[in-house]
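[stage:ingest] chain + small molecule (NAP)
[stage:ingest] validated
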Amino acid sequence: MSLFLKKYALVTGGSRGIGREICIKLSSLGYHILINYKGNEEQAIITQQACMANNVEAHLLQFDVANRNEIENVLGAWVLAAEKNAIIEVLVNNAGIRQDTLMSFMSDEQWNSVINTSLQGMFYVTRTVLNPMLMNRFGRIINIVSLSGLKGMPGQVNYSAAKAGMIGATKALAQEVARRNVTVNAVAPGFISSDMTADLDEKELSNMVPMRRFGKPEEVAALVGFLVSKEAAYITGQVISINGGLYS
Ligand code: NAP
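[stage:predict] done
[stage:export] tokens:
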């Protein structure tokens, strides 16, 4: 492969919250950024501008990570078109949703949408970018999971299952691709302030956290920034918690 390939980082769900801060962190490290989002173009453009302020390219890639055809049509087409002059060196599978309810009341839709966004999305997106990464003999894949996927959370059977599935996939894929210098790790946040947690009682729940506060998206992004670095070359197949000391 050419030494002069332009290096890109793809962040799914990069329009808001944790994903936005990861885009900004990776742009500050010199990566050109591919910002995936589902529908919120206004927010995606805000992320794009913040990345471009770091003197890199930032492109919007709209597709639903739960939709295999959209992934093929948009991301697959980008990978094909870019083959000779660009490489996605970093992939952050960050897109995720919550649809909380007790198992007895959980609809097929609530189960499927959460599993399809986090777990299936990770599978289809990763498979689309993996081969060029392997041929490049260097890559970083980071899966954003959750404390819920480690310990299970009542009211989140769907979300806990999706994130636990991602953790299993992280550990298996890490072993498949280690010889090609592609590392695969999972980052498991606890409570982080974002739109996803806006409906929670932050003051009340902070009492459960030894640090007595929710985390910031920038703090998760800093951990991702370390995991993509050359210094993190020997860390793979791991789940790294970032949760203010919550038991996990
Ligand atoms: P958020 O503020 O709700 O943002 C969600 C992001 O995911 C948005 O960019 C959204 O795009 C995108 N997205 C949702 N469904 C998508 C789909 N089907 N296809 C493409 N993009 C999609 O969430 P967040 O708090 O930043 O969470 C980011 C990740 O961290 C998630 O995987 C979440 O499970 C995980 N996490 C969060 C917390 C927390 O406390 N916040 C804790 C543990 C783990 P649009 O803007 O277009 O809708």
